[in-house]
Amino acid sequence: MAIRVPQGYRLAGACCGLKRDPLKLDVALIVSDSPAVAAGVYTQNLVCAAPVQFDRQHTPSDRIRAVAVNSGNANACTGQRGLRDAAAMARLAAQACGAADDQALVLSTGVIGEFLPLEKIARGIAAAATRLAGDDESLLAAARGILTTDTVHKLAGRTLPLSGREVQITGMAKGAAMIGPNMATMLSVILTDAPLDVPSADAALRHAVDDSFNCISVEGHTSTNDSVLLLANGAAGGPPLAGDDLARFGQALDEVAIELARSIPADGEGATHLITVEISGCQTRADAVLIAKTVANSALVKTAITGADPNWGRIVSAAGYSGVQFDPAGVSLHLNGFHLYQGGAPVAFDAAAVSRSIQENRDTLVALRLSEGDAGVRFWTTDLTAEYVRLNADYHT
Fold first, then answer.
1. CA 23, CA 265: separation in Å to the nearest integer?
2. What is the pTM of this model?
3. pLDDT averaged over the chain?
4. Which of 20, 358, 381, 385 is buried most deeply by CB count within 10 Å?
């Protein structure tokens, strides 16, 4: 089974009353039976939440035992009290699994600017600690415990043989809006029983994030709480991965991260389309990313897809104001495989057929090719609907 709990981990979800619906899971607890190497990548928003500040101080590490996650309260913009509350939440998680206070990390997501109700958090962590297990049901409960406005839980996994041992990588994520790199609100915890040293874990995670969580957007809003954690406890046995084994592990980790990342805009609030923006032919990857982000975040591009309108002008002009220098005469554009634009002018195409292809498929592919070089990128976003506006207008009130 590709999605299962790696060796040496136990998980649980619990409900402590943080959400409007008092029956929804709002706490997740993840425990490694032995100290794990941990790496983290966090939001680049200067206004970052207390859990982000706490985890940055404690990663990378080679002795993490627990991760506690709460949903419904972001513990963001809460000042010194927020920092104290994050540290207290970490202590509660550590004590729940018999670890030292500095062996736990914390993640929070939800409404910004409200203090963390520690009494409820304590009850939730205590309840989760009594349910810890390594089975599929426990994994699913933990994955559900981190959700806010998501409509579905998000899990991905890979199993791969490496030099006579089987290694498991399993990740969970949450996010449906306030999604914009770097990173794009989203949380993810990826667990593996592979043996990794601290530098390898840190480098592998950063590489994976670049092509996944940093390549998604719903509305371009970089959250205060975005965090991705990688834990590697080595329970699969053997020395730390190196050489070809480490490379194969990195490739599998990339695949898990991309699958999790795509699932976020695929579940975008009110979205009717998942849009893949493929940019190629750029001088540098940075240029490709900038063009992709500009196209992906264009409200006019997004609403055109909502209306199944093959409006190539919105896409081409978005690339033109991205700030990247390129020859407009060298640009070509395909939408769902239909050729719409070449060499500075539209080509003849069946607008009705293109419109149907958008209308009848949730997945939409925008492929824009320049003539400047060989660099490119894939980027994922959503369309923009009236339902998105309604959901986010009503989120806090």
1. 26
2. 0.92
3. 93
4. 381
